[in-house]
Amino acid sequence: MGEIKKVVLAYSGGLDTSIIIPWLKENYDDCEVIAVSGNVGQGDELDGLEEKALKTGASKLYVEDLTDEFVNDFIIPTMKAGAKYEGYLLGTSFARPVVAKRVVEIALSEGADAIAHGCTGKGNDQVRFELAIKAFAPHMKIIAPWREWELKSRDDEIDYAEARGIPLKITRETNYSKDKNLWHLSHEGLDLENPGNEPSYGKDGFLELGVAPEQAPDKPEYVELDFERGVPIALGGEAMAPAQIITALNTLGGRNGVGLLDLVENRLVGMKSRGVYETPGGTILYRAHEVLETICLDKETSHMKAQIALKFAEIVYNGQWFTPLREALSAFVDKTQERVTGKVRLKLYKGNIVNAGVWSEYSLYSEELASFGESDYDQRESEGFINLFGLPVKVRALLDAQRGI
After folding, report:
1. What was the pLDDT predicted at 229?
2. Could you give the count of Cα atoms lying within 13 Å of 49 in the half-sphere of its Cβ?
3. Global confidence as pTM
4. 24 close to 9: Cβ distance less than 8 angstroms
């Protein structure tokens, strides 16, 4: 399949990448395979990876701690933009560029001939990985085994692994396709492929970051978040880095059944796909930021930002992070955040997030002006405003009457 002597593989240790190492060696003339894992907060999924990678044929494994870069350079800018793709908080989408960027850096330093990934030909991740690779190594060969091999399904992959003695953490019955990082956990496949099936939220082992809402405590729990220029800086009055805040919010939100999303989304490649997402901390953080913006942003900026958020989400979802447009939109968002500073209190209860207070030194809300009680607002002035604002409506009605319409 070509003169390939050294391949760098984006390696998670999951089903796909576990069998790709021996597959590459079998099909690319026993080439050297260097595995690279990006730590983006997936926790114990990294345990035992080096032993597994070496046993299956890799010459070495890099485990790169990308958590802070992932949070500060990808999650926070996306959260500040308020970007959501059809309700999805983009957990897999913005994890791919940061991992791919590091994979390219290692491939270049190792003098690799190609970069390989385990993304399927049906999914979005192949685009996200490959656009990042093209941005930093435009001449690098990319190997995507799912677009080359004869395997047709995850069952075929398990057969391949069993035939070669490759240990797997999953079985055919628990063979969900999952992606986990500090921000979220996604579930796809098996019974979820039928959108008529209710997810097994209460089934032991299905949810990993939290509980089903009905299993959450009967007593509400309050959370307070402080922001500075749109960036979370403290939780419960205690200063923390954003990554620490997200970690703590995952615990708070998870135990209160917050952050579950069952979504049939429109994939970039054209098909619809059903997934269940757990994003407890991210859901709280987005909500708190949105609440703070309601008092800190003026109407026109807020409405324009909402339009930008839709495009920003599509850019992230489509893997176009490393593009001039994304950078330009981030510059716009940063400008809007200059006065998004303050505190938000939320109440968490059985999967719900309830607003419980918001404060900012830059608040544009005037209690005196908005009050139903006595104020300095001269209500008579509204008559002239309405006459001018409604002039087009009035003129059309008068002219239509003259025409007999």
Report:
1. 98
2. 24
3. 0.93
4. yes
